[in-house]
Design a protein that fits this description.
GO terms for molecular function: phosphogluconate dehydrogenase (decarboxylating) activity. It is a single chain. The chain has 475 residues and is α/β, with parallel strands linked by helices. Helices cover 56% and strands 10% of the residues. The protein contains 20 helices and twelve strands. Helix 1 runs parallel beside helix 6, helix 8 packs across helix 12 and helix 13 packs antiparallel against helix 19. The longest helix is centred in the last third of the chain and has 34 residues. Bound molecules: NADPH dihydro-nicotinamide-adenine-dinucleotide phosphate. NADPH dihydro-nicotinamide-adenine-dinucleotide phosphate binds next to helix 1, helix 4 and helix 6. The site of NADPH dihydro-nicotinamide-adenine-dinucleotide phosphate has 22 residues, from helix 1, helix 4 and helix 6.
């Protein structure tokens, strides 16, 4: 045996990460259910480093140095379970199985438990960065036994992206923690993209800017506080001209957004944890609405009522949209980090938010300058109650709040949907409100269901005898 790492599942992600390991000087054992993929990889890229070909799982496992380290890159769900089972049967106590697919974190918790009983280490590693990242340096979020990270960590860190000499990979915590934070990462990615989409829509429909000019606006924004991979590629996608029609490509793409599930998982988890991750939820719902083709067609004739005219000062409104995008983005991240803190508490993971912001600075889809500020915020105050309260973000959001309100008000007045801008502003306003209408909700709940309420002026639980003389009793 001579391979330091093995990769099974050699579709795009697995092939590229195997090549990444080989390019970094490791000997990599290769395996795929259908051997054709293994041979295709060797034929095309076999000269990039040292690979060991295998046809069966037994051969694959036999090629690995001990403790054996095998990375699974197959479809999440049943396929992953099948591969884990066959690997586990061929391995020995102390060996490490890494699942680099997009597994649901509860599956990872279950698998880690089952494998631990057999003496095997199971590491659920979230990997972000798509095909390109897998090849040249992804962000890696491994969760699992701390002991396994000792031997596995250096390998993963050497193939991960790097920012300022710091690898975009760190041990996240036990069992499902790595896949959980990867899931929320993807949820934040949904929110980021929705906010970018709303900004684009306002520039297009309210200001009537030509697509090429909107591309320039995003390119300019990418040189400032919003500098990020997603804003950068927004400028590129908007600048793309369709060869066939000569129109901007974006204008010939069907406006129905797909989704593979990680955004939906994030929102389901947020609901279970009771965390208002509204930005991500609005983004998931916005994709669903865009794909409600029949309803949209049927509703196309609904009246917009009387619409206001567009703002007259174009440059001011562009700056307003920038401020709204920035502030809403802070809200989306604040909510995402709240969800991670809640998940960490629920499952006893002890996830370090600052370390997470650090590894998300490079390699992954949400990589952004912005994450440096988040990293600093948690370095300054690890107990931060909300990212919105970190001095830097507080100042930035407060400076832009008038713009944010103008954008949401203008969107409403001109009939442009801005679910993420709007709900983020409402979240901000709710969070800073002295009194919320939840007091009335409690009164109603007490009226119809005797659910009781607490009082502002004394401890205890109370109930009003709504059906009787309406006096108050102690519950
Ligand atoms: P796919 O998700 O398309 O999976 C294809 C691979 O799974 C093939 O190697 C296939 O083998 C194997 N496979 C499927 N079913 C089985 C089974 N029952 N037993 C054994 N092997 C099986 O590949 P990707 O490279 O796109 O993604 C791999 C993982 O990485 C997924 O979990 C994905 O969610 C995740 N991921 C993907 C990203 C992306 O940008 N694509 C980004 C981040 C994570 P065969 O060739 O024999 O059919």
């Amino acid at each position: 045996p001579q391979a330091q790492i093995g990769v099974t599942g050699l579709a795009v992600m697995g092939s590229n990460i195997a090549r990444n390991f080989a390019r970094n000087g490791y000997t990599v054992a290769l395996h795929n259910r259908s051997v054709a993929k293994t041979d295709a990889l060797l034929a095309e890229h076999g000269d990039e480093g040292s690979f060991i070909r295998s046809e069966t799982i037994e051969e694959f496992v036999a090629a690995l140095e001990r403790p054996r380290r095998a990375l699974i890159m197959v479809q999440a769900g049943a396929a992953t379970d099948a591969v884990i089972d066959s690997l586990a049967d061929a391995m020995e106590p102390g060996d490490v199985i890494i699942d680099g697919g997009n597994a649901l974190y509860t599956d990872t918790i279950r698998r880690e438990k089952a494998l631990a009983e057999r003496g095997l280490h199971f590491v659920g590693a979230g990997i972000s960065g798509g095909e390109e990242g897998a090849l040249n340096g992804p962000a890696i979020m491994p969760g699992g036994p701390a002991e396994s990270y000792k031997s596995l960590g250096p390998l993963l860190e050497s193939v991960a992206a790097e920012v300022d000499g710091v690898p975009c990979c760190t041990h996240i915590g036990p069992d499902g923690s790595g896949h959980f934070v990867k899931m929320v990462h993807n949820g934040i990615e949904y929110a980021d993209m929705q906010l970018i989409g709303e900004a684009y829509d306002l520039l297009r429909r309210v200001l009537g800017l030509p697509t090429a000019e909107i591309a320039d606006v995003f390119a300019r924004w990418n040189t400032g506080a919003l500098e990020s991979y997603l804003v950068e590629i927004t400028a590129e996608v908007l600048a793309q001209v369709d060869a066939e029609t000569g129109k901007p490509l974006v204008d010939v793409i069907v406006d129905e957004a797909g989704q593979k599930g990680t955004g939906r998982w994030t929102v389901k988890s947020a609901l279970d944890l009771g965390i208002p991750t509204t930005g991500i939820a609005e983004a998931v719902f916005a994709r669903a609405l865009s794909s409600s083709t029949e309803q949209r067609k049927a509703a196309a004739g609904l009246s917009a009522g009387t619409l206001a005219a567009a703002p007259t000062d174009k440059d001011t409104f562009i700056d307003d949209i920038h401020a709204a995008l920035y502030a809403s983005k802070v809200v989306a991240y604040a909510q995402g980090f709240d969800q991670i803190a809640a998940g960490s508490k629920e499952y006893g993971w002890d996830v370090d938010p600052g370390a997470l912001a650090t590894i998300w600075r490079g390699g992954c889809i949400i990589r952004a300058q912005f994450l440096n500020r988040i990293r600093e915020a948690y370095a300054e105050d690890p107990q931060l109650p909300s990212l919105l309260l970190a001095p830097y973000f507080r100042e930035a959001v407060e400076a832009g709040v008038d713009s944010w309100r103008r954008v949401v008000a203008t969107a409403a007045a001109t009939g442009i949907p801005v679910p993420a801008f709007g709900s983020s502003l409402s979240y901000y306003d709710a969070l800073r409100s002295d009194r919320l209408p939840a007091a009335l909700t409690q009164g109603l709940r007490d009226y119809f269901g005797a659910h009781t309420y607490r009082r502002t002026d004394k401890p205890g639980s109370f109930h009003t005898l709504w059906g009787g003389d309406r006096s108050e009793v102690t519950a």
